[in-house]
C-alpha cells in the first residue's frame, strides 16, 4: 500500500502499476527497446485513482510520460510539468507541454504550493455528488449560463452531453483558477474569452493511442477480414472512425486493412475509403500531420514501425501512402449527416459522454449508416442498448456488433439531425426529484375504472395506424392472416369498415367529432347493434390525432307483436330495418357525392397544374439537353486541365524531392520564416541549434528555445524584413561552436518580401584556425619588434602581415599604409626597383644589396635578406621574413 512521505523507485527492466492504492511490480512486457515505464504507471494511476490522479513530469530525456498524462487528463486528473528552462534535460517536459493538456508549467520550487492549493480546493477535496448537484437549482441555472457562453462563442451545444461529466470538468477549472464558486467562474469566463476556449478543449479531450486495447483489435481483425474477403474487386471498402481524436485509431484501422490487402492476390485492389471525423479542429489538424512522438514504439511493433512510419528527428511520421487513404474532417455526430454504406463503423469511447436519450437516437443512425453485414465497433463501456434486435453481437467483451437487416430502427432517423430544439424539455433540463402525488389506492381505483367502465377505444393517426388500444375490441376488429399491418382500415370488421373509414375522413377534414349511432354486425349466429364516435384531438401532446370510441348496444331482440293488430311482427321489423338502412344509405350517398364533387374539382385543378408542369418539364428538358452538351464540352476541358495539373504535380513532387535532398544533405542549417517570424520550414541541421520538431511549424521562432546566447536574434530578423538589407555575423553556441549566421529577405517569384531566410554555416574549424593565426601574428609581431634591424613578415601572397618599428622609422612609413598591402606594389611604385622580385620569389637565404633613390628619403643603400618560416604540402611558401640592414648597421 502506498504510504505518505515515501518515494518509490521502479527497478530496471520492470513495470509498476497501481490497483486499489497498492503498488504492483511486474515484468516489462514491451517491445524490445521501447520500455515506457512512466507511461505505463501513469495510465495505471489514471485507471485506479480517476480524478484524484496527479501526474508530474520532471527533467528527462525522450518522450516517456506523454501518453500517461493524456490518460490522466481523460480521467479528469491534474498534470504538472517542470519548466523546460529549469530542467537539465528538457525533452520530456517539452514533449508533455506540446500535448496542450498540461495544467501547470512551473519550476520545482513553485510546485508544492500550487499542488496543495489545487488539492485543497473544495471542488476537488469534497466533490459534490451528482445527486447533490441535480438538487441544487442554483447550480443548475449557473450551468445553463456556462453552456450558453460556450454555444455563443464556439457554435457547439453541450446540452446533450452527460451533465455529470460537464460538471466535473467545470469544477476542475474552478479549482485550477482557485475561484470560489460558479458565479465567480461565470464572471471569469466573461472577462477572459480565452478561458471559454480552454473549457471547450477540456470538454473535448479525447485520448487515444495506437491499437488501444490490443486484444480488441485482434478480435476486430478476425471479424473484419471475412467481410473484406467477400468483397468483389470493384467494390470499395468504406470505413468511418467517428470521434477519431488525434488520428491514432484511424491509422490503426488503416494498418489492419492494408495488412489484409497485402496478403490477398487480386488483379485490382479494392478502393479503400476511410473517413475519420472529430468535433475538435485541433485534433483533426494533428491527425492530418500524422506526426507522433517516439513513445509510440511501446504501442506499435517494430515490423509495423518499419512498414508504415518514417523516423523524423525525435519522432515518427506516418508514410504518405497511408495518410492519403484517410480523409480527416470536422464532424458533429448530433447534427451532421452520417457516412453510408459502411463496412466498418468505429466509434469508441464517444457515446459514454452523451446522455442515454441521445445514445438511443444515435444508434439507429449507426444502423442506417452500415451496409449489409457491416460491423459496429464500440468502446468497452458502450453498447447498443435497447437496439439489440437491430444488431448481432459478435464479441460481447470487446463490443463488436453486426448489422441485422430490417427497418425496425430506421424510424428514429426521422428525428435527425438531433438539434436541441427537437428535444423534449426533459432532455434539456436537469430534473429535480418530484414526489408522486398519487397514492397506490388512487392508482388502483383508476385502473379498475379504465378496464371495467370505459368503452373500447382506439387512438389513431391520420392514416388510420393504431397507436394505442383501450378495452376489449374483439367485437369491432379482427386480425386476418398474412402480413401484420396495424391499421384500422384493414382490421375493422366488414360491416364497420366503410362507415368507419367515412367517419374518420369527415372528422379529419372538419376537425370535429363524427358520430354513427347504430350499425348491425354479425358475430357467429347472433346479430349485435354497435355504434361509434370519432373525435379529432386538439390537446397537446395528442394534437392532430383521432380517438375512436365504440359502443356495444347488445344483441338484436325480437320484438313482440302489438296486441289487437293483425300485422306480421317479423315483416314489420324488417321494414323498419330497411327504412333505417335506406336513410343511412342516402346519407352516405350524399356524403359520397359531395366528396366526389370536391375530388373532381381537385382533379381538374391538378390536371391543369400537371399540364403546366408538363410544359415546364419539356422546356426544362430542352435546357437540360443544351446543358448536357455544354457539360460534355466542359468535361473535356476539365480532363485536359486535370492532365496538365497532374503533370505539374509530378514536376512539383520531383522538384520538392530534389529541394528536400539538397537542403537535407548540405551542412547548412536553414530556417524559413514568414513576416511574423513563424516557422515555415527548416532543415534537419537546425535541430542541433534550436529545439524544434515538425510539430513546431507555424509557431513563432521566438517561442523556441535555442542553443545560442544572442537575445538580439529576433531584432536582427525584424530589421532585415523591414529594411530589406541582409545581415551576416558570427555567433557561438553554449557549447562554444561557431556558426556564420546569415539573415536574408525571403523573396517570392513576384519579387515580394514574404519573410526571411536564416542560414547557419559551421565555421568552428575556421574560427580555430583564425585564432591560431592571430596568436601567431601577435607572437611574430612581438618577436620582430625585438630586432634592431628593419623587418617585415609576408604571407603567401607577399602581403605585409607584420612590420616592426625599425622598418617604419627607416622608410618613414605608417603601419596602416602597408599592412595587408602587397610589398611589391610599394617597391615598384615608390622605390622604383624590381631587384626584390627574384628574392621574394625564391625566398632564398642569400643577401642582396640595393642602392636606390627613394622619394622623400634620397639615395639609400641597404642589404635585404629573405627567410622562409613555413611551407604548405606542395612546398609553396606560406610565411616569410624580410630583413633590411643599412650600411651603418653593418
UniProtKB/TrEMBL annotation:
The keyword Metal-binding does not apply. Keywords: Coiled coil, Methyltransferase, S-adenosyl-L-methionine, Transferase. It is an enzyme of class 2 (transferase). The keyword Methyltransferase applies. Its EC number is 2.1.1.80. One of its GO terms (biological process) is regulation of DNA-templated transcription. Pfam families: CheB_methylest (PF01339), CheR (PF01739), CheR_N (PF03705), PAS (PF00989), PAS_10 (PF13596). This is protein-glutamate O-methyltransferase. It comes from Pedobacter westerhofensis.
